[in-house]
Amino acid sequence: MADFENKVAFITGAAHGQGRAVAIALAKAGADVAAFDVAKKIEYPAYDFGSSAELESLKDEIEALGRRCVIAVGDVRDDAAVTAAVEKTIEAFGKIDILFNNAGICAYATVDKMTDDEWNAMIDINLKGPFNVTRRVSPYMMKAKSGVIINNSSVMGLRGGNRLSHYTASKWGLTGLTKAWAIELAPYNIRVVSIHPTGVNTPMNDGLAAMEGMTPIEIAERSAGNLLPVPWVEPEDVANMVLYIASDKARYVTGSQFVLDAGLLSV
Ligand SMILES: NC(=O)c1ccc[n+]([C@@H]2O[C@H](COP(=O)([O-])OP(=O)(O)OC[C@H]3O[C@@H](n4cnc5c(N)ncnc54)[C@H](O)[C@@H]3O)[C@@H](O)[C@H]2O)c1
Q1: How many Å apart are CA 223 and CA 119, to the nearest integer?
Q2: 5, 140, 23, 232: CA torsion to nearest 10
Q3: Could you say which architecture CATH assigns to the domain 8-266?
Q4: Crossing angle, helix 165-185 and helix 129-144, to 10 degrees?
Q5: Measured between alpha carbons, how far is 86 from 232 in angstroms, rounded to an integer?
Q6: Could you give phi then psi for residue 196, rounded to 5 degrees?
Q7: Among the atoms of ligand 1, which is closest to the Cα of residue 171?
Q8: How far apart are CA 139 and CA 158, in angstroms?
């Protein structure tokens, strides 16, 4: 499959988890990739983030597929780092066709115990982060009169989550940004779509489990409530959905919410 030959994808949170799976799937389908990640442990939440070694191995994997990969290390909260990464991508590839706003964090807290730092980190990374990146990428797409922006929200961007009010607020906010940007960018032939996975089998899920003193399966089952008999979906399932949305097969799809929930939202 080479639907994405000569296409360039900019992916945040690319070192591991869903971002990595999407990067590899797009490269297999012909795309060149700019892989952006903070690539270090940050102060909150207390689980492992992506690493430089993972970014390097992603680059090797993509190059072994015959595609090009640019690595950029930075935090989506940091406008200077985001701007530099976008400029580096444009220098290397000349354009950005697909933006996957994927970097995000998750952690638990009840509203009475939530600190300012926890609230701010959740909103700054999960909601302002996609704004920071889209603000810097969209001018290139507008100039090209072409592009697709895919925002990784969550089922929690369409329902509530227990002890997840900050996460839920950030993900509903991202659903809202999707709708507003779809209106604003449609005249430039830029499509904007959000995806809403149930629990995904990634290092995030492992990290949350460790923080709660549970196994990854236990935490997935506690939070999921999937109808299908699976504790989670795999990052590759997310990649399949993203590839469809990013492709010309979805050329008239914009402003929409794509649910990958194993049935969770049906009840
Ligand atoms: N795992 C799930 O169950 C699940 C379900 C639905 C939606 N999501 C969402 O999907 C996205 C990806 O999640 P995942 O499961 O792959 O998570 P993950 O923690 O396994 O991977 C996230 C990647 O993003 C990077 N990252 C985190 N904060 C960053 C920042 N401030 N700047 C730059 N990079 C940063 C990390 O280093 C890591 O490589 C997130 O937005 C998450 O909220 C996750």
Answers
A1: 20
A2: -120
A3: 3-Layer(aba) Sandwich (3.40)
A4: 10
A5: 33
A6: -135, 80
A7: 43
A8: 29
- Ligand 1 close to Cβ of residue 104 (< 6 A): yes
Question: For the segment 159-206, what is each residue's pLDDT rounded down to a tens digit?
Answer: 999 999 999 999 999 999 999 999 999 999 999 999 999 999 999 999
User: Pocket of ligand 1, candidates 151, 152, 236: which has the most ligand atoms within 8 Å of its Cβ, to mutate?
Assistant: 152
Q: Residue 191: phi, psi to the nearest 5?
A: -100, 145
Token pair 């709660």 is found at 212
Ligand 1: distance of its center to the CA of 21 in Å? 12
Q: How far apart (Å, rounded) are the C-alpha atoms in residues 128 and 249?
A: 30
Closest CA to 232 of 262, 209, 210, 192: 262
Closest Cα to atom 23, ligand 1: which residue?
A: 13
Q: Residue 61's CB: how many other CB atoms inside 10 A?
A: 16
Q: Which amino acid is at 4?
A: F
Residues facing residue 190 across a β-bridge: 147
pLDDT in tens, 132-151: 999 999 999 999 999 999 99
Start-to-end Cα distance in the chain = 36
Q: Which two tokens stand for residue 18?
A: 């869903």
49 in ligand 1 pocket by Cβ < 6 Å?
A: yes
Q: Which residue has the tokens 């030959």?
A: 5
CB of 201 closer than 6 A to ligand 1? no
